Amino acid sequence: MPIVTVQQGPRDIELKRDLVKRVTDAFVDAYRIPAETVQVWIHEVPADSWGAAGKLTADK
């Protein structure tokens, strides 16, 4: 059973629904497995708890 973890900043629920469907479909196509066996975990990190290039994303 594949488990996919996505780490990202907060997103709209509709975008997350679309992402989960697309990721699931990719595994179904690539591995020829039932969609029910694919799990997608979305870990959302607030902009003040995430940094890139030496700066918090909240400061960009």
From TrEMBL:
* PANTHER family named among the record's database cross-references: BSL4019 PROTEIN, TAUTOMERASE-RELATED
Q: Which family does it belong to?
A: Belongs to the 4-oxalocrotonate tautomerase family.
Q: What is this protein called?
A: 4-oxalocrotonate tautomerase family protein
Tell me the ranges covered by the 4-oxalocrotonate tautomerase-like domain, including all copies: 3-59
Q: What is the taxonomic lineage of the source species? A: Bacteria, Bacillati, Actinomycetota, Actinomycetes, Kitasatosporales
Please give the superkingdom of this protein's source. Bacteria
Q: Check the record and name the InterPro entries matching this protein.
A: 4-OT-like_dom, Tautomerase/MIF_sf
Record has Isomerase as a keyword: yes
Q: Which UniProt keywords apply?
A: Isomerase
